Amino acid sequence: MHLFGAFHADRLVNAGNCRIIYIKIIDITQRIIESLLSISLQYKKRKFTAINKGDQVMGKKFGYYILAVVFFIVLWGNAASAVAFSDVGNHRGAGHINRMAAEGVLGGYPDGTFKPDRNISRVELAAIINGIFNNQEKSSRKFRDVAPKDWFSGEIAKAVAAGYITGYEDGTVRPGKFVTRQEGYKIVADAFGLSGLASDSYAAFSDAGAVQQWARNSTGVLLDRGYIIDDGSGKLLPRKFMTRAEAVELLDRAAGLIINANVASFKDKTVEGNLFVRSSVSALENISVNGDLYIPQSALKQNIVLDNVRIKGRLYIRNNKLDSIRIKGGETGGIIIAGQSARVHLELEGSTVSGTLGVFAASFINVGSGSRVKKVELEAGASGTVIEAVPGVQISNRSKNIIVNGVAIDEGTVFTTTDSLDLINVY
């Protein structure tokens, strides 16, 4: 869905791997003027004053950035086209920017620029992340500085539902606030399911003391994975504002290889980094992923089979639909099931999970014959989960309404499945 009305493709030009779409905007001028007037009136009425001067809110420039983000999201929605930016050509982040634009997860300004060195705001960063994950779930949480009629309210609601944006103690979420590098690292780590990992790699930098406690693990983990690149200065500059180019480079490295086209199968490949499945793919066959594999909401519109897929890192599943993912053979370093209302049907057949299978949302899990799972951890959000498992699976339950092999399991119980499908050993 596009803001301000319909867009029509005037002509499509193929230039190598870059498809440049020229867009004719129908009846858009009047709508933009009306929207600008609305923003102006809201600005005069609310004055967009900062609750805390330390927040570095944009103040009088807020309206301009709101307009920038509007166009950012307007152009961001077309996954079939790439955008050529007039101010990106020789920029150090050009490769990352152009690739993400080609994948259809970000766009630029109406004058054909991207403005890579402009600071990025919280809502702009959220919009890109929502685009990558195709987040659809929306939180009902209310914030004092976000009205339901605000065009960006949906992006904030999606970010909150996904768990990588939270509000402040004063009841605000500050969508227009510029993001510092360490804030950006924390947001990205949370969005990509890395917040539970620990690392002190940040300590190797001369300004490590400037990294605040809440950002240390996130910064270290992103450094370990090569998402943050040392520029040779020996400094992180964690409190410096993050630019749009820096944000896109970070997210491009984190996303890795993106499957964007709807294909029957993706097979016989080795992926050096992460693999991100944004489209509907029926099967992944004979794949080696040397990073993590992400299957977000956009991909789980049908049954998916992972046949002899070896994942060095973890498999991340986020879904709000009742679909199934079947894993035949292969091995993964761990599995994370998340989402407010996942209801994922996960079947393991002769496969190995060498790490933890973490369940953060209600799911149906079948650990079948020949499968080995080191440990299953049911978190608070997993209420309603049903598990059928072969003997020898250790399960730690921190949730309510859990059924394992037909037996109701109390919260706080740690146990191992036994030879009898209707019995468990509790300890």
From TrEMBL:
InterPro entries given in the database record: Cell_Envelope_Struct_Comp, SLH_dom
GO BP terms in the entry: xylan catabolic process
Pfam family, one: SLH
Transmembrane segments: 62-85
Its EC number(s): 3.2.1.8
Keywords noted in UniProt: Carbohydrate metabolism, Glycosidase, Hydrolase, Membrane, Polysaccharide degradation, Repeat, Transmembrane, Transmembrane helix, Xylan degradation
Database matches in PROSITE patterns: SLH
Keyword Repeat assigned: yes
Domain SLH: residue ranges: 80-143, 144-202, 203-265
GO function term, MF aspect, one: endo-1,4-beta-xylanase activity
Entry keyword Phosphoprotein: no
Identification of the protein by name: Endo-1,4-beta-xylanase A
Source species of the chain: Ruminiclostridium hungatei
Phylogenetic lineage: Bacteria, Bacillati, Bacillota, Clostridia, Eubacteriales
